[in-house]
Amino acid sequence: MILEFILLGFAMFAIGISGIAASRHFVIMMLSVEVALIAATLVGTAFFYYVSSVNILIFLLAVWSVASVEVLSLVVFYRYLAKNEVSMDVTKLSKLRD
Amino acid sequence: MVYAPIFFALAAIEIILIALIFVFKDVLHSVLALSMAFFFNSVLFLALGQPLLALIQLFIMVGGVSTYVFVGVASISFSNFRHTRFAALAGLSVAAFLILSYKMLSVQLPEAQANVFAINSIGPAISSNVALFYVILFMVFSVSLGSILLLKRIGVKR
Predict the structure, then answer these.
(1) Rounded to two decimals, what is the model's pTM?
(2) Which residue in B22, B129, B132 has the most chain A C-beta atoms within 10 A of its own C-beta, making it the best mutation to test that interface?
(3) Nearest residue of B to residue A29 by CA position?
(4) What is the ipTM of this complex?
(5) Helix B83-104 and helix B27-47, axial crossing angle in degrees, nearest 10
(6) What is the CATH number of domain A2-97?
(7) DSSP string across A41-85
């Protein structure tokens, strides 16, 4: 039954990575990173059953803190882009130089 | 055995919710779908036989991250949010979450018997990696301060 969890985690990670690759909206790309991170926690916890000497909790704390930091920077950048009426399209972020 | 059909239902719901993030046009709906995906990810942790990790996942991801995104990012489009349809969807999802998590609370995977995290395993896990814990704290504060200072610098240049 662990194999199904690992396959599900791989599928979620693939969806997250393809979302980063295919989307051009800034917020959707960051949400895709979140999806990839929760897939990583799921796969890590499922792998923990095979390698029982490894403590997975500190890895999970690292992943959760990365997710929190990413959301923090997402909100700060989103507020900035919305205030200055810059487009959320990431290919147009070079307008920030002006 | 009731375990495998519930697991596949959970996996299908999770994949559909993650796909809905990219289908919706409005950011607010995408954030709603992401928080529902967080809900069902914590049910998947319950299905792995780890209730403590499921609880921490629920607190951090749903209580912290998705609430912050909801207030910070999606609140701009609150005014044109059609409440009726998506409130029903959210209510259905929470009901499914309660039912499935109740089913999954009694799950004991044979592989999971030796490796279940308890509340007293948090201390040894962190105390054996104190340096990494401080690195994580340092990373959180430096990235938050750095992003704020960077944006202030860009703002001054404009």
Answers:
(1) 0.81
(2) B22
(3) B22
(4) 0.88
(5) 10
(6) 1.10.287.3510
(7) HHHHHHHTTT-TTS--HHHHHHHHHHHHHHHHHHHHHHHHHHHTT
